[in-house]
Amino acid sequence: MMKVDILYITYNRIQTTMLTLPTLLESTEYPFALTIVDNGSEDGTQEYLKETVDNHTRSDKITLIINHTNQGLSGPTNEFWKKSQAELVGKIDNDILVENAWLEKLVNTHITIPNVAVVGGFHFPPEVFNYEKCKHNIHQYNDIKILRQPHIGGNYLAKRQILLKNGLLEEPGTANFKLGGWTGYQQRLSKKSYIVGYYYPLIYFEHLHLAPGRYYKKVRKMSKKKYLRWERTAGEEMIYTKWSWD
Q: Which of 72, 54, 71 lies closest to 63 in space, CA to CA?
């Protein structure tokens, strides 16, 4: 059985945390350790986290880290990658409601396909998925299918050794931060022939933090960037060609 560590970062937004953290803890029967990092919340989130961890039956598998200031995402993620002893590491945002049994499916993907680097759930509304425009990206490996993409967002499960082999995330204020943070990191993995993508049939991760109208408009715009064609040249170089939504 592969060991799994999950990172969950909070910064205020206590309403979403109170919905997503209990769901995350009860969503799967696959054993995992959870690291919660609070980035200096001032809305009662820290008190809620302490109470939740203290009262949970699996508190010995939960690590709570309280930062006095907002450390962002890259720094805490890098520390998590370095300190973890698990074979698989992942991150779930505190505005994401995970689907039941999501972890079992993602772990099985990593077991079945050795060169999968990053696989995750689909964090857009189901209605924005267009099978006809995406089917060229759906690939089958043994009995597992993946909707391959050059990057899939911040909710994922990854092979820790592949991540460490390819370096840590660039942090704000460093010379190479312009490389694109986690998005650019995944794109570089894809170009090295590692597999990055969504598990298929899609596992849905519901985004909670935006009002429906604004959210739908935003994700349509994001989807134009996400659904990228990919092909290989004779030299095995990854080529990405965008298509329009409309």
A: 54
Q: How many domains does the chain have?
A: 1
CATH (domain of 77): 3.90.550.10
Question: Which residue from 79, 147, 78 is spatially nearest to 118, judged by alpha carbons?
Answer: 147
Distance of CA 246 to the CA centre of its chain: 27
R_g of the chain, CA atoms, integer Å: 18
pLDDT in tens, 88-135: 999 999 999 999 999 999 999 999 999 999 999 998 888 778 888 788
Predicted confidence at residue 128, as pLDDT, reads 78
List, for residues 172-208, the tens digit of each pLDDT value: 766 555 556 898 899 889 888 899 999 999 999 998 8
Q: Which domain holds residue 85?
A: 4-242
* Average pLDDT of span 130-146: 89
Strands 116-120 and 195-200 come out as: parallel
Distance CA 181, CA 178 (A): 7
Q: Which of 69-73, 109-113, 220-224 has the lowest mean pLDDT?
A: 220-224
